[in-house]
From TrEMBL:
Keywords linked to the UniProt accession: Phosphoprotein
Gene3D superfamilies registered for this protein in UniProt: 2.20.25.10, 2.40.50.40, 3.40.50.2300
Listed SUPFAM superfamilies: CheY-like (SSF52172)
InterPro entries named among the record's database cross-references: CheY-like_superfamily, LytR-like, LytTR_DNA-bd_dom, Sig_transdc_resp-reg_receiver
Domain of life (superkingdom): Bacteria
The species this protein was found in: Paenibacillus pasadenensis
Biased composition (Gly residues): 125-135
Entry-annotated residues carrying 4-aspartylphosphate: D53
UniProt-annotated stretches for the region Disordered: 119-148
Name under which the protein is recorded: Autolysis response regulater LytR
Biased composition (Low complexity): 136-148
Domain Response regulatory stretches: 2-116
An example molecular function term from Gene Ontology annotations: phosphorelay response regulator activity
Length: 258
């Protein structure tokens, strides 16, 4: 597996290179500190995978990733960063993985094992491009939202990325600027992202805005109870109650054919 490293901190780059070589599955074909150096080097070396620091000193790794996606055979991208605040953006860019600093050897090994399996699968007849979408990306039109590509919503929770099936979501609620996502199995996850961000990501799915503080999966609605001033309350199949504001009642009626 040909790997290219883009990291502007020499010590961090050396550590990552050391851990990657210990897997005995990679050939590091190049390293770069800047975005422009990386773009030239990647175009010349055609790696299978690029380990890309999100926060380069003079550019955003996210912007570099967008430019790499324009290549005829884009490499798989593994984002690396000391913070998890860009995790959802990384998944929107179809990242193969997202690892946090300081690097953990077992985590690096897991990433390489996963990429090896994908590259091997892509090399089989009908498997698609080994370097691009067939290897480490879902097959979809560039720029498609995560739910429309995979049926799952990527949610950053602490230092993890949870991939939640859209069909399992009951509702999303705004709580003090954060978002709580309630699932049909009784579990709930809290994300630092605001509700409006999830509303944008979930466009085109059965999840709709019903209140300034709530999004609801319309298939989870079991009953509608009229309330005061032309509003109503939704009773979900879980027994949870969600208010509907007058502002969003018309849209909900259209969704339900009510």
């Amino acid at each position: 597996m040909k790997v290219y490293l883009v990291e502007d901190e020499p010590l961090a780059r050396d550590e990552l290179a050391y851990l990657l070589r210990r897997t005995r599955k990679v050939d590091i074909v190049g390293e770069a500190e800047t975005a422009e150096e990386a773009l030239r080097g990647i175009a010349d070396s055609a790696p299978d995978v690029v380990f890309l620091d999100i926060q380069l000193s003079e550019a955003s790794g996210l912007d570099v990733a967008r430019r790499l996606q324009r290549l005829e055979r884009p490499p798989a991208i593994v984002f690396a960063t000391a913070y998890d605040e860009h995790a959802l953006q990384a998944f929107d860019l179809d990242a193969a993985d997202y690892i946090l600093k300081p690097y953990d050897e077992e985590r690096i090994r897991q990433t390489i094992d996963k990429l090896s399996r994908r590259l091997e699968a892509a090399s089989q007849p009908g498997g698609g491009s080994a370097a691009g979408g067939g290897a480490a990306h879902a097959s979809a039109a560039p720029g498609a939202s995560a739910p429309s590509r995979t049926g799952k919503l990527a949610v950053a929770v602490d230092e993890r990325i949870m991939l939640l099936p859209v069909g399992d979501i009951l509702y999303l609620a705004s709580e003090e600027g954060k978002t709580r996502i309630a699932l049909a199995d009784g579990k709930a996850y809290v994300s630092a992202e605001p509700l409006v961000a999830f509303e944008q990501k979930l466009q085109g799915t059965p999840i709709a805005r019903v209140h300034r503080a709530f999004l609801v999966h319309v298939d989870a609605i079991a009953e509608i109870q009229p309330w005061f001033h032309s509003t109503c309350t939704l009773i979900l199949r879980s027994g949870d109650k969600v208010p509907v504001s007058r502002t969003h009642l018309k849209e909900l009626k259209q969704r339900l054919g009510w």
